[in-house]
Amino acid sequence: MKSFTVFLWMLLLFVQCKQENEQAIVMTVNGPIAASEMGNSLIHEHILVDFIGADSTGSHRWDREKVQQVVSPFLKEIKQQGVRSFIDCTPAYLGRDPILLRSLSQTSGLHILTNTGYYGAVNNKFLPKHAFTESADELAKRWITEFNEGIEDTGIKPGFIKISVGLDSLSNLHKKLVKAAALTHLQTGLTIASHTVLAVPALQQIAVLEEAGVSPEAFIWVHAQGEKDKSTYLQAAKKGTWISLDGIKEKNLDNYLKMLVTLKNEGYLNKVLLSHDAGWYSPGEKDGGSFKGYTTLYGKFVPLLRSNNFTDAEIEQLLVINPAVAFTIQIRKH
């Protein structure tokens, strides 16, 4: 009876949100869809990643047809599991290829999202030269143009902003990336997903966003599972931040269960996102290297949740409702 009551409460909340914003959309590589169409989602995965560096990468480094041959069976697997939406988190200058993603979306039947923004981690290896000299406003202008006009000459629009910062306190360069993301959000409504890991830079980014007038509800703390002090999750979630636990593997399912139980008991299950951070085709390696599939979350972890008293409504919250709300295009002001 309690489970049914919780389900009704979540259903009413979801209906209320839809009524408040009947035009809620997410932007896929094939164009906009209603957020309610996302269905079961994987919110942080990769099709292709090229680690050669910003000064050398480009689509000349891979054969799209060969990549598609390697990746398609893995997408078919998750489609058969009931997954409907796939968020590709590979940013510009690290192997982002919207044409490849659109082709894979059309052949797999999955909704696929790509991104705008720049990746500052790994000692800025994946930042283009102009990122060091341009202002936050100038960088934001580039990202806003991608949303308004499409990426390069493809006409394909990003569905979110992907940035990245270092593990320590934010450098001035990385503060600039966060500020550019804030400015882009305020013009486009795109959610900001930041490769962050630890709490110190996460909380600092939240402060930068708030100062710029952006609500933490527009911010995804990516790879939060890497932070040892789990109490910081509650501190960030209380502000509205999305806590992305996105490194699920068969060997760490019990650890993820513990994290989710804590967040559930504190009433923040509605601020959690789950995924594998898996894939990916690696240009320069034979046959694209060793590809890790995307089936553990739905194939192994969901059954584990059910066997540990997570209700169908709570699982729906985690895998359907939360992604739809998180990636809805909406300006969220502080």
SSE topology:
Layout: H1 2-20, E1 25-28, E2 31-34, E3 41-45, H2 64-81, E4 85-88, H3 98-108, E5 111-113, E6 115-116, H4 130-133, H5 136-149, E7 160-164, H6 172-188, E8 192-195, H7 199-211, E9 219-222, H8 231-239, E10 242-245, H9 253-265, E11 272-274, H10 296-307, H11 312-326
Q: Supply the number of helical segments.
A: 11
* CATH-scheme architecture: Alpha-Beta Barrel
Mean pLDDT rating: 94
Largest sheet: 6 strands, parallel
Percentage of residues in helical conformation: 40-55%
* Proportion of residues in β-strands: 5-15%
Oligomeric status: single chain
How does the helix and strand content classify structurally? alpha/beta
State the fourth-level CATH superfamily: Metal-dependent hydrolases
Overall number of structural domains: 1
Global shape: globular
What does this structure look like?
With 334 residues, the protein is an alpha/beta fold. The protein has one domain (40-326): Metal-dependent hydrolases (TIM Barrel). The longest helix is centred in the N-terminal third of the chain and has 19 residues, at 2-20. 43% of the residues lie in helices and 13% in strands. It is globular. The chain is built from 11 helices and 11 strands. The strands form 3 sheets. Strands 6-7-8-9-10-11 form a 6-stranded parallel β-sheet. It has a 3-stranded parallel β-sheet with strand order 3-4-5.
